[in-house]
Amino acid sequence: MLAAIAYALFMLYLLPAAWLVKWAGLPPAVVIGQVQGTLWQGTATVVQYQGLQFQQVHWRFNGWSLLRLAPEFQLTAGNVAARQQPYATAGLGYSFSGIEVKQALLRIPVSQLLPLIELPLPVAASGELLVEIQDYQQGQPWCSRLTGNASWLDAQLQPPTGTWLELNSIVADLRCEQGSPVLITNGNNSLGLAVTAAVDNNRLTVNGTLKPDASLPQEVHQAMQFVGRPDAEGRYTIRF
């Protein structure tokens, strides 16, 4: 009996990761390139999801975590020095409460995100989206806790008027409310962007207001005609 268990564990240890990916039945939107290594340590040349490509995805499994019945592994994707490509690193785990994320960092060029978002007006944008998650615990329907922040660094926006605008940086807090991840900006930025973005029924919703600072170029204020009519305090409603 012990020999059979030892043999099974040995075969699991040597099981190629490529076989596991094949058996996993990934969603159609996820495409994985050549996979090498095993469950415990390996590499995928590329992982693509809806147009976003993460190059050279590495993982390392913490075997000792099995003793706690809470498997953990470290994941790294991309090159931190390649600013024009997505990059991610995270400590991932699984317990009886579900998936856990610790000390995660995600960096994505904003221009690559725009095609995935339905915006209320045609714009172009550049810069980087930087998401830092200190602690996340899976819950119903999405989370039971979430602590982190998100930043749009070197933010540049091109409204329908065609002029590129320097917005510096926009910072938001991440939290979990009623089981859903929520992103909140406080309006302390040059656009006066005070919004709450949440996942509702598997769909991203954004609600809030926009009040460009008077110091911004006239093109910004002209572009507000595409957003709607301001309220008595000069704020424009954003909802999509």
Describe this structure in words.
The protein is mostly beta strands and 240 residues long. The protein folds into two domains: 16-96, no CATH class; 105-240, no CATH class. The protein contains four helices and 14 strands. The protein has helices at 2-14, 17-24, 110-113, 218-223, and strands at residues 30-32, 35-37, 41-49, 52-62, 72-77, 87-95, 98-109, 124-138, 143-158, 165-177, 180-184, 194-200, 203-210, 236-239. Strands 1, 2, 3, 4, 5, 6, 7, 8, 9, 10, 11, 12, 13 and 14 form a 14-stranded antiparallel beta sheet that branches. The radius of gyration is 22 Å and the shape is elongated.
Highlighted features:
240 residues; mainly beta; 2 domains; 14-stranded antiparallel sheet; 4 helices; 14 strands; 13% helix; 50% strand; elongated
**Rounded to an integer, what's the Rg over CA atoms?**
22 Å
Give me the number of helical elements: 4
- Taken from the alpha-carbon principal axes, the silhouette is elongated
Strand elements, count: 14
Structural class: mainly beta
* Proportion of residues in β-strands: over 45%
Please estimate the helix content.
10-25%
Average of the residue pLDDT scores: 86
**Which sequence of SSEs, written as H and E, runs from N to C?**
HHEEEEEEEHEEEEEEHE
Strand count, sense and barrel status of the largest sheet are: 14 strands, antiparallel
User: Which segments are poorly predicted (pLDDT under 50) over 5 or more consecutive residues?
Assistant: none
Span of the ends, CA to CA: 60 Å
